[in-house]
């Protein structure tokens, strides 16, 4: 046998080794690409599942909604001025042409409802908002005083996490112009707090689930729990669509119209539009309007009840746990720490202090930190006025008899329904982790 050249043999061996390494690298690279693709698909699926769960929760508690209709009057458009629709129903996000464009789109007013979900450790807070291009009157003497372009009013549903998929509906607060009205289902433990409960939130079966029933009057579109408002003669009954359908009423007597649920936080949606100077006068949420009375309509993050000092402008949407904790008593273990609040990631706190024993009176949530008397007053807390406290797990509060952390003190590491000898004695506090 012919002897092979050692150099040639070595070269062949090197070629074989390099080829093996190359194929191995290609396989590894392919595996990495495939793994990345799987990861991306899993991430996309997770997002889809999350969005679907978000929508399903909103759909579950979306109200059956009554709309009274008035077909008479100069600005009624045969009743169409009372139909609810999309804010961009005329294919733009311009707040100053919605009044005048209504006539041209009167037969295409597809039903929409805007929603947002804010989540705390213990609750979901779901805001629903209904838009109409006109807030109008049939009284000529009030045309310049009581009419304005754009109208958006709504309701907050307070849903307690109880281990079930969709939780339990405990209370609701509606927007009626510049007033809020509060309601509770008959099965709720919620009772009047700083604000009196205004009535029972009626529930009605729809596709095998009990939904709350709300209603708006004609012209001004004040929103309350049905039947505090009701259809008087002609009117429309709207139902939440499970498939994203936005139906147009057949006439002023249509008793089944499906409305489309639209996430306020969707890309390019209402929250993103807050910087749109053709729609809002500022990101604070006041709609523009140039027909009759200037302004008058607000986005949820600007809704305000003028005589409820404890709940500030916009907190209906941006700090709904605060509203619930102050409007109602008997709320149980209501957490003021948010796990998802796209309106305001800094809202809430880890400890809630109460004016009275048994978690009643005003309720103020505080983040971790040190608070002198002046700082407590800036939150609305009165000197020598605290009587009970709730804490998130892992935190403690030290209360001091005097300002600037002086005098007698007490350390509290768990919920305390009445402070005993330290009742009405706190003038400064420190909140720290355990």
How would you describe what is shown here?
- Residues 1-49 have low confidence and may be disordered.
- This protein has 434 residues and is an alpha+beta fold.
- Helices cover 19% and strands 31% of the residues.
Task: Summarize this structure as a short list of keywords or feature phrases.
434 residues, alpha+beta, 13-stranded mixed β-sheet, 6 helices, 22 strands
Layout of strands and helices, then pairs:
Elements: H1 6-61, E1 64-68, H2 98-101, E2 112-120, E3 123-135, H3 143-146, E4 148-160, E5 168-176, E6 179-184, E7 191-192, E8 199-200, E9 203-206, E10 209-216, E11 223-225, E12 235-240, E13 257-263, H4 315-318, H5 320-327, E14 328-329, E15 338-340, E16 351-356, E17 360-366, E18 369-371, H6 373-378, E19 388-391, E20 395-402, E21 406-412, E22 428-433
Parallel strand pairs: 1-10, 2-13, 6-8, 12-13
Antiparallel strand pairs: 1-12, 2-3, 2-15, 3-4, 4-5, 5-6, 7-14, 9-10, 10-11, 16-17, 16-19, 18-22, 20-21, 20-22
Q: Which structural category fits the helices and strands?
A: alpha+beta
Main sheet record: 13 strands, mixed
Radius of gyration: 29 Å
Low-confidence stretches: 1-49
Count helical runs.
Answer: 6
Morphology: elongated
- Estimate the mean pLDDT confidence: 90
Query: What are the secondary-structure elements, in order, as H or E?
Result: HEHEEHEEEEEEEEEEHHEEEEEHEEEE
Strand content: 25-35%
Distance between the termini: 84 Å
The helix content is: 10-25%
Would you report the number of β strands?
22
């Amino acid at each position: 046998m012919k002897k092979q050249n050692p150099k040639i043999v070595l070269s062949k061996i090197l070629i074989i080794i390099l080829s093996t390494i190359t194929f191995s690298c290609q396989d590894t690279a392919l595996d990495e690409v495939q793994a990345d693709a799987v990861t991306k698909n899993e991430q996309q699926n997770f997002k889809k599942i999350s969005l679907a769960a978000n929508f399903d929760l909103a759909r579950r508690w979306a109200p059956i909604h009554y709309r009274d209709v008035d077909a008479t009057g100069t600005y009624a458009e045969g009743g169409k001025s009372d139909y609810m629709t999309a804010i961009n129903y005329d294919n733009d996000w311009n707040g100053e042409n919605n009044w005048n464009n209504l006539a041209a789109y009167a037969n295409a007013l597809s039903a929409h409802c805007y929603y947002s979900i804010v989540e705390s450790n213990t609750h979901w807070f779901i805001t629903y908002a209904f838009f109409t291009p006109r807030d109008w009157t049939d009284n000529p003497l009030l045309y310049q005083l009581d009419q304005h372009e754009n109208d958006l009013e709504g309701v907050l549903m307070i849903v307690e996490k109880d281990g079930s998929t969709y939780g339990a509906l405990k209370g609701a607060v509606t927007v009626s112009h510049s007033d809020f009205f509060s309601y509770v289902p008959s099965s709720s433990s919620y009772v009047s707090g700083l604000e009196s409960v205004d009535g029972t939130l009626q529930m009605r079966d729809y596709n095998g689930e009990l939904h709350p029933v709300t209603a708006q009057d004609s012209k001004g579109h004040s929103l309350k729990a049905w039947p505090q408002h009701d259809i008087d003669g002609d009117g429309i009954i709207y139902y939440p669509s499970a498939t994203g359908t936005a139906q147009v009423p057949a006439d002023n007597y249509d008793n089944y119209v499906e409305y489309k649920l639209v996430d306020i936080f969707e890309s390019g949606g209402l929250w993103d539009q807050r910087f749109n100077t053709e729609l809002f006068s500022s990101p604070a949420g006041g709609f523009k309007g140039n027909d009759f009375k200037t302004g008058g309509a607000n986005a949820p993050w600007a809704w305000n009840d003028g005589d409820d000092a404890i709940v500030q402008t916009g907190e209906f949407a941006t700090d709904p746990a605060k509203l619930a904790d102050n409007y109602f008593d008997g709320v149980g273990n209501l957490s003021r720490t948010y796990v998802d609040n796209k309106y305001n990631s800094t809202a809430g706190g880890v400890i809630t202090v109460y004016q009275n024993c048994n978690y009643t009176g005003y309720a103020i949530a505080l983040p971790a930190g040190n608070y002198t008397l002046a700082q407590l007053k800036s939150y609305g807390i009165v000197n020598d006025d605290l009587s009970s406290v709730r804490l998130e797990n892992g935190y403690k509060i030290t209360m001091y008899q005097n300002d600037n952390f002086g005098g007698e003190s007490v350390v509290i590491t768990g919920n305390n329904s009445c402070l005993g000898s330290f009742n009405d004695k706190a003038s400064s506090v420190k909140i720290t982790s355990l």
